[in-house]
Amino acid sequence: MPFTGSCHCGAIRYTVDEEPPARALACNCSICRRKAPLHHFTTPDKFTLHTPREGIATYEFNHHVIHHHFCATCGIAPFAEGEGPQGPMVEINLRCAEGIDLDALQIDHYDGASR
Length: 115
Description:
Distance between the termini: 35 Å
Helix content: under 10%
Shape: globular
Number of strands: 10
Order of helices and strands: EEEHEEEEEEE
Strand order of the largest sheet: 4-9-8-7-6
Structural class: mainly beta
Largest sheet: 5 strands, antiparallel
C-alpha cells in the first residue's frame, strides 16, 4: 500500500509506491541536527512527485551529491534526491509522511557527524 506526504502548505506532494516503513534513520550530521528529519530511503522508480518543481528550492553542501529539497513557500523539507551507496536514491522525511505513527517507528541512529 503506497504512502503519501507533503510539505506543510501542500505545495509539494508525493507518493511512495511501497509499504509504509517500520524503521527510520536519525542522523547527527550538521544539517540533520538542525532539521531533525526521520529518514527513509527509496529508489526513484517508487517516488512520484505530484507537484511542479518550480516551487521547490534546493540546498546542496559538502560533496553536492544530495539535493536537499524544501518548499519555497513554507520552508519544510519533505524529500531529497541524490546518489546513495547503491546508486540513485530518494530520501523521504517521514515527519512529512501521512498516516505514519512516528512513535511506533524503530529508530536507527547514524553517526553522520563523524563521517
